[in-house]
Design brief:
The protein contains three helices and five strands; from the N terminus they run H-E-E-E-E-E-H-H. The chain has a five-stranded antiparallel beta sheet with strand order 1-2-3-4-5, covered by helices on one side. Helices cover 29% and strands 24% of the residues. The protein is α+β, with helices and mostly antiparallel strands and 117 residues long.
Length: 117
Amino acid sequence: MEANWKPLENRLRAVRCAGFMFMGRVNGINLYKHGISRSYLYLDDDGNCFVAAKAGCYLAADFDQELSKLEERLKGLRATLETSYDEGFIAQKREALRQHGVSLLTIQVEPDEVTIH
């Protein structure tokens, strides 16, 4: 599936989308996960906002309110919407955890080509 960044960029401007990942699309709703806060924004192609209700079901929501919640989470993590969730950020997070005695194990899975009949 090709990422659809237009609804999010129209709402936030591209520079404020730096920490998001496009996670897919369900029932016409684009799923944008913020890498730092691990929270989602759900937008349809017109930029209308939703919240997840149950598996595959979404309810209309106020975009400004959902954005405010996300920004509060980021503030608590000393980040903003402009903070990139990139290799540099991940390395800093890992180092901070290491300094606090938390060891991490990373497993990288390389997908194999699979044919289903």
